[in-house]
Write a structure and sequence with these properties.
The protein is α+β, with helices and mostly antiparallel strands and about 650 residues long. It has two domains: about 5-60 and about 95-265, Dipeptide-binding Protein, domain 1, CATH 3.90.76.10; about 360-605, Dipeptide-binding Protein, Domain 3 (Dipeptide-binding Protein, domain 3). It contains 23 helices and 27 strands.
Length: about 650
Amino acid sequence: MGYQQKLRGLVVSTGLLTTVLWGATLPAWAADYKQAPMLDEQVKAGKLPAVAERLPEHPYVETMIDGVGKYGGTLRTTILANGDQYNLTRTIANELLVRWDPKWQKVMPSLAEEFKASEDATTYTFKLRKGLKWSDGQPFNADDIMFWYEDVFMNNALSPAKNPTFTVAGKPVKVTKIDDLTVEFKFESPYGLFIQQLAYGQGHLPVIYPKHYLKQFHEKYNKDGIPALLKANPAAGDWVALFNSKVSLTFQPPFWQNLALPTLNPWILTVPYADSERVVASRNPYYWKVDTAGNQLPYIDGITWAKLDDPQLMALKMTSGEFDFAFRHINNSTFKSVLFDGQQTGNYKFVDVKDLPANDAVILLNLNSTDPVKRKIFQNKDFRIALSRAINRQEIIDLVYVGQGAPAQVAVQPEHELFNEREAKQYTEFDPKASVASLDKIMPKKDAEGFRLDETGKRFTINFMVADVFGLSYPDVMQMVQKYAKEVGIDIQLRTTDRARLNTMWAANEQDAYIWNCVGGLSEVYTDPRCYMPFQKADIFFAMKWSEWYSNHATGEEPPENIKALMAAYDKVNAAVTDDDRRQKMKDFLNQSADNFLNIGISRPMPKYMMTSKNLKNVVNGIPITGNLWHPAPTLTQWYFDKPAK
């Protein structure tokens, strides 16, 4: 018998598990499949095959919330103008080998029709749905996954740092093609969390690289043709830059700007995330899911994102009825009263969202700073404690977050069985006297203005990067933190930026510090510990060189013994096979993380929500969302307008 994982609110069976064949009991549908009316003319003209020929042999059958929907309409939503490509990802890009169900309770087959795991949790086998097609009609099969593995993931030029989803203890996975529809993922040591990891957003990597299209940009397949392609693309200096300009490992802008890139997503890009005032996507005629009546999904014909620079403008346009859906950047107490009052004029309603972060506002000092003086101070735990005690968290919560939230460090939320009270509450008391006493030992000398001097005799200044994202009012928060820091002699200089610039800085390890939210508030802490240890995933880079080393010991920078011990503790979590063993090892890991106190949290997450048009149906209430649990993408294909959309 295989092992079964049972976390709070989470059931995942992975040991020697062969799943059901979704749709296999409904072969009689083949003659009765239906398609969106907008595709009828293309089929009639011979530009598209019949719907039954575009679907796999066993399509994924989506369970409806309110029942079978109606075709038609364009979903109008919004996106920040710079560095907000993850908004697109969350909306239309969540197609994975396996997926979480909409309630985040179990892992289900998706592109893989079947999957199984070995008893020792080292080997995982996936059988793809027969007849899957990319958005250009070309087959998707094991060769595409092998292209990702052999030619992208294992190519050091394209992937110098290996994504931790596909590594254990610094050793990468070995992927083998069994047949055209079957692949095997094998690890050198047990990896009991792999199926869960694969069901999160980072699990997209094996299925976003269409070999038939991308091989033309790869030196291995088109060495003689690359010079001509580089001449036609002068911005790319070599074949690696050329390849990366066509796709990206993390859904960065190249992914959302290349209209020629085939995809498995329900909608395909028709106006890119570039310099235009909006982004547009239209339905994928080869999408591989159907509803319970055999209607090919999605129901909605297309999506438009209005590109805006200001979250306040987003909220204003929502209240004036210009959007059918909005979530990111305006989904908290800062905008709630305005949005609540605008429901009638905007023709929308509130939908509850279960937000899962470990903290809404986290100070991330760069422990791998290229400045040796700052690196030494940032790595000093006593300095981090002193800065933490200088912050009046309750005042920030009262004034910025209108009382919504609670003083806390980065920690699992109290309702979860892994809640660690010490980790949540340590050093959260507002105690400037204790802060000063500690800082006097670290940097006792001050200049004429009362700011502390470092060991070189210069004023110690932290250049803090601040992006106004997620509607969490980070500029306002940091202005208050700046004031508290000044009172204990620390000079913080604020540098406002957008997310795109911040992405560039942390990728180059150029930042002193920045403020962000942190995932890991509920069960996803098992699979995404990026704020509890150096762990290379998007958005959180407080020790990039150490996280690179963790993924691949041949890269990055070997960390000190306490950090290596923390990483080893998480390796034990990954290797655990039984539920009880994994739970205990996770508690041990969280205790070690608390001992290290790597980041400074400010507020436990406040209640979140999203707004949807009153005409939209099949919308999940209480939908969970976190850093790599990309929602509403998994359920958006079943949304429909019960009245004609504008």
